[in-house]
UniProtKB/TrEMBL annotation, chain A:
GO terms for cellular component: plasma membrane. It holds the Pfam family BPD_transp_1. Keywords: Membrane, Transmembrane, Transmembrane helix, Transport. It comes from Knoellia remsis. Belongs to the binding-protein-dependent transport system permease family. InterPro entries: ABC_transp_perm/SBD (IPR051204), MetI-like (IPR000515), MetI-like_sf (IPR035906). It comes from the Bacteria. This is Osmoprotectant transport system permease protein. The chain crosses the membrane at residues 29-50, 62-83, 90-109, 157-181, 193-213. It is found in: Cell membrane; Membrane. Residues 25-210 form the ABC transmembrane type-1 domain.
TrEMBL record, chain B:
Keywords: Signal. InterPro entries: ABC_Gly_betaine_transp_sub-bd (IPR007210). It holds the Pfam family OpuAC. GO terms for molecular function: transmembrane transporter activity. The keyword Signal applies. Residues 1-20 form the signal peptide. SUPFAM superfamilies: Periplasmic binding protein-like II. Residues 48-305 form the ABC-type glycine betaine transport system substrate-binding domain. The keyword Signal applies. Gene3D superfamilies: Osmoprotection protein (prox), domain 2, Periplasmic binding protein-like II. One of its GO terms (cellular component) is ATP-binding cassette (ABC) transporter complex. This is Osmoprotectant transport system substrate-binding protein.
UniProtKB/TrEMBL annotation, chain C:
GO terms for cellular component: plasma membrane. GO terms for biological process: glycine betaine transport; transmembrane transport. It is a multi-pass membrane protein. The chain crosses the membrane at residues 20-39, 46-69, 81-100, 121-143, 149-167, 179-200. Gene3D superfamilies: MetI-like. It is found in: Cell membrane; Membrane. Its main location: membrane. This is Osmoprotectant transport system permease protein. Residues 15-197 form the ABC transmembrane type-1 domain. It comes from Knoellia remsis. Belongs to the binding-protein-dependent transport system permease family.
Length: 279, 309, 215
């Protein structure tokens, strides 16, 4: 089995052609990037606004309760509802993208919100004291300070969307999910396993690239350590060297409301595997 | 208001389900052991029978009919609906998870022999008998047939003057075919269309069930692989292209069972096969797919009408 | 709502399977993640290894995980254990980090106080560290619960029945109401799981309320 999976992965026949692995990877990335981009256009401004004004925090809770909605069901519902209304091949693309967008709004929104919320009030006051307008505070203080958590949310979104975009193959979309669904339908477990491995690798590669981006764009003056320690105080007094100190800030955002409100942060954090090792 | 109460009731039901699991005794996780154990070793009668089904409505309906007929003969039968495609449920029959499943003669032939050539119903049946693995056995086949077909809309048929699959030659190059994913690789699927008719479509869109029907209706696909008994063909005025070369062969409905249970199941299932006709299956299928009736209810009514239930 | 009203029995049966398929892995996953998280905490070199490994597991698409389980486990293709084991793996992937971080969140001063009072080894772990880590672990468990309930519905594509069957059947037979019912039932189930974990957490950590509403 393992040998045949390796054969499958390394065979040129697997990679070439219209339905080949190369083309499927490109499709898969395209769906993922499109979904995250659309979701970010909605969630980033919203998160900034909620974090900046402190108003409508329930939006974050509502977005998080969306996590409980089964993706498969949402996909079927949207496909049946939207599919017949759209002409051409977009009828397959749009429903799946809509569902993926809904899937990744929560991690992005909670990342942005948690990031802005965690900005040191003193820094904000200082900026106001210097005569900055509200917009300037957002652009020059809150966004740069919130960047690490915002990017964490984004990375978490990418990990989720890359793994989940596979289910969209069930409603006729391409991407790497084709190998899973078609493999199951035809009893060809080698391509199912091979496709799954490619999905995992793709998720890790994208996460790695984003980790580098994160390192590059986050202000060097903002190691994150200073602000985090302050927020983490309640949870842990002493933090041993080499341990991960990223979680508490996000977690403390949790509003403790019913429902999955307070997963916001942990999951934004947890689904993101490898970061802690690289930091 | 009514909706509200229903939502509330739904949540209560879910809660009850949750608490019920604490009561023990009804652990669904243990469900696979009794059925598996009985067929693996006992090699004879007695024990529960699980009738599986593929993941399309007709198969579910037939499974309910089989299970109902078995129960009427005092056999402890249950169904395991929507297992998946042939490649999966035959594995389930092999490992003893199920003991019977509704099948189609020609499809079995193609499954076990990529170069399967027989098209006459009786010859197909005999040939398939020779191809089946040791532990499997077909009971009596029904005259009822549900074949694959290539279907187009009335407009496409008229404008392209299509009557048979052969007419697609030269035209399919600009058309998209919609079909379940497995159609792409099966010998009587896309490879068969090319080999037998020289028909090659521009592109392939993997779709199932109602989504496929919708896609054909809305023009996202120009031709679709839909079963001949599918009520949506009549409902939407689709045109089913004639299979002049008998690519799809004969697809008589037949119960495929575990060999060691065949003797015990035949008295209940053979009369069912006799009672089923292509028209009857189409009519019953319309009740589940178009009228949204439950397969089990439709099956019960059918069995009662035929003194089988 | 006619479809729903006619199918309470089915919804109920499917919901019960769903509870098992999503709930049992939570318990198993927690039981396995506890020692793993403790190890990761105890030997800080293990931490990155365990965290990366669990993160890697979480990127495996659920559909593939379900399908490949019989090949890995040697189970029957329709065995519900395929789903239970796969979901347990996801649960562990989510919880190892939470457990490690939860144990890490216990203040050093508290541990020293416990040591001074003679708490050692297992007694210190079960008597001091674990109870204090409950809030963080419970938060992780709630994430896992919601995620499990959602992922289990995919098992319908491999022939293991649960609420996801309402989704696939509704899709194939074009019954939107059935799909919506399936979605609502899943969400309700997720909320119930969430509520139960929250309730157990409160029972286990009475001191949190005694302190009053922190922050």
């Amino acid at each position: 089995m393992i040998a045949s999976i390796i054969d499958w992965l390394t065979s040129s026949a697997t990679w070439s052609g219209e339905g080949g692995l190369g083309a499927r990877i490109v499709e898969h990335l395209w769906y993922s990037v499109l979904a995250v981009a659309v979701a970010a256009m909605i969630a980033v401004p919203l998160g900034l606004w909620v974090g900046h004004t402190g108003r409508a925090k329930w939006l974050v809770s509502v977005a998080n309760s969306l996590r409980a909605v089964p993706t498969l069901g949402l996909l079927f519902a949207v496909a049946l509802w939207l599919g017949p209304k759209i002409q051409g091949d977009l009828a397959f693309l749009i429903p799946s993208i809509v569902v993926l967008v809904i899937l990744v709004i929560p991690p992005i929104l909670s990342g942005v919100y948690a990031g802005v919320e965690a900005v040191d009030p003193a820094a904000r006051d200082a900026a106001r004291g210097m005569g900055m307008t509200g917009g300037e505070v957002v652009r020059q203080v809150e966004i740069p300070n919130a960047l690490p958590l915002m990017l964490s949310g984004l990375r978490s979104a990418f990990l989720q969307v890359i793994a989940t975009a596979t289910v969209a193959a069930y409603v006729g979309l391409g991407g790497l999910g084709r190998y899973l669904i078609d493999g199951i339908k035809t009893g060809d477990y080698v391509s199912t396993a091979g496709g799954a491995i490619v999905v995992s690798v793709l998720a890790l590669v994208v996460d790695g690239v984003l980790a580098l981006v994160q390192r590059a764009v986050v202000s060097p003056g903002l190691t994150g350590r200073a602000t985090r320690r302050r927020r983490a105080e309640g949870d842990r007094a002493v933090d041993g060297p080499g341990t991960n100190s990223r979680n508490p800030d996000a977690r403390s955002v949790a509003t403790g409301m019913s429902a999955p409100a307070d997963e916001v942060a942990p999951s934004a954090d947890q689904t993101r595997s490898s970061t802690s090792t690289r930091q | 208001m009514k909706r509200m109460t229903s939502v509330l009731a739904l949540s209560t039901a879910a809660m009850l389900g949750l608490t019920a699991c604490g009561g023990g005794g009804s652990d669904p996780l243990s469900s696979d052991s009794p059925s598996g154990g009985s067929s693996a070793g006992s090699g004879g009668s007695g024990g529960a029978v699980v009738v599986g089904s593929a993941d399309f409505p007709e198969s579910e309906l037939l499974a309910e009919i089989y299970a109902g007929a078995l129960k009427a003969k005092g056999i402890n039968a249950s169904t395991k609906p929507r297992i998946g495609s042939r490649e999966i449920y035959l594995k389930a029959l092999e490992d003893g998870s199920i003991q019977a499943i509704p099948e189609y003669t020609g499809a079995l032939g193609f499954f076990y022999d990529k170069n399967f050539k027989e098209t006459d119903p009786d010859k197909v049946y005999t040939a398939v008998e020779g191809l089946l693995p040791d532990g499997f056995q077909m009971l009596e086949k029904s005259a009822a047939e549900d074949n694959d077909s290539i279907v187009v809309t009335k407009e496409t048929a008229d404008s392209q003057s299509l009557k048979t699959i052969a007419d697609l030659k030269g035209k399919a190059g600009s058309m998209t075919l919609g079909a379940p994913p497995e159609f792409q690789k099966r010998p009587q699927g896309i490879p068969g269309l090319t080999a037998t008719y020289g028909v090659t479509f521009k592109s392939f869109r993997p779709l199932t069930g109602q989504a496929l029907v919708q896609a054909l209706k809305n023009g996202q696909v120009d031709a679709a692989n839909i079963f001949t008994t599918d009520p949506s063909i009549a409902e939407n005025g689709f045109v089913s292209l004639e299979d002049t070369e008998k690519l799809f062969g004969s697809q008589n409905i037949v119960p495929l069972v575990a060999k060691d249970r065949a003797e015990e199941l035949a008295p209940a299932l053979d009369p069912v096969s006799k009672a089923l006709t292509t028209e009857k299956v189409a009519e019953l299928l319309k009740q589940t797919v178009v009228d949204k009736k439950d397969a089990a209810d439709v099956a019960q009514t059918f069995l009662k009408e035929n003194n089988l239930g | 709502m006619t479809w729903v009203n006619d199918h309470w029995g089915d919804i109920f049966t499917l919901a019960r399977s769903h509870v098992w398929l999503a709930g049992l892995p939570l318990v198993l996953g927690l039981l396995i993640a506890l020692p793993l998280g403790w190890l990761a905490r105890r030997w800080s070199r293990l931490y990155p290894v365990l965290i990366s490994a669990s993160g890697l597991l979480y990127t495996i698409p659920s559909l593939a995980m379900f399908v490949l389980m019989p090949l890995v486990l040697g189970t029957k293709v329709l065995s519900p254990w395929n789903v239970v084991v796969a979901m347990t793996i996801y649960t562990i992937a989510l919880l190892v980090r939470t457990v490690a971080d939860g144990l890490g969140s216990v203040p050093e001063a508290t541990l020293q106080a416990a040591r001074a009072m003679g708490y050692k080894g297992f007694r210190r772990f079960f008597g001091v560290e674990l109870p204090l880590a409950v809030p963080v672990i419970a938060a992780g468990l709630r994430v896992a619960a919601v995620s499990n309930v959602s992922i289990v519905s995919v098992a319908s594509l491999i022939g293991v029945a649960q609420l996801g069957n309402l989704l696939t059947d509704g899709y194939d037979r074009y019954i939107p109401e059935e799909i919506v019912a399936g979605i609502i039932a899943c969400v309700v189930l997720a909320l119930v799981f969430d509520g139960i974990i929250l309730g157990v957490q409160r029972l286990l950590t009475p001191w949190v309320r005694a302190q009053g509403a922190r922050s």
